[in-house]
Amino acid sequence: MGDPVGIGPELIVKAWSELEIDESARFIVIGAPSYLERACQIFGYDRQIVELQRIEQIHQTQRTSIACLAPDVDLPPDLPPGQADRSAGRAARCYIESACDMALARSIDAIVTLPINKAALLMAGGGFPGHTEILAGRCGVNDFAMMLYVPDESDNRDGIGLGVVHTTLHQSLRSALDDLSVTKILSMCKLAHEFADSLLRIRGIERPPRIAVAAVNPHAGEHGIFGREEIEVIAPAISAAQELGIPCSGPVPCDTLMARA
Rounded distance, CA 246 to CA 240, Å? Predict the structure, then answer.
């Protein structure tokens, strides 16, 4: 559900009203039924909210109903919408962790996350600034990344698409620039290569993945005129990746990278 007083409940009921549900798929909301009911009232949707006590009960519900599994978390039923609230932040984290635990236990096949309020999340404690860090912590991994991925389903290309891996995440631009390092960039190159290589093998495509490392400064620093990050940090990381057999190129100016994509 994401933050129960955010737009998550509204997005759920809107999507559910337009969802073409495949016969092989069942969807469950991990969140608070009362906030789904409030969202239905706001938009005038006549949709039954079915609260589940355990996940197996999903098979006893109608596909048109919104099945909701509510983790045990202290959440007032009538918090005002659109405000950062400690209880809502605690609930949002609980929903993410509960869904992650279900996925790890193979009770569900995938997780779709809805927006959270970062301020509310931090008010609730725990030190996690976003979804990615919560999921990584729950899975017990230290080497992780967020990837934005768009598949390419056109007939005239290889069908792989474009993935963008973030070297820095959930921090200010100033601190992100300070935190750039050869080690971080090399780590992201490794993760991107592992993912792309696996995807290619799954698709039966016999060619190495292509990885372009984006520059930070305009014109990739223009030989140090607009900044030296490309020379002192990014290029050494690319060289280190190439020595490991990872086919990297760059630093590539962001506008050029998007044009090629």
Answer: 9
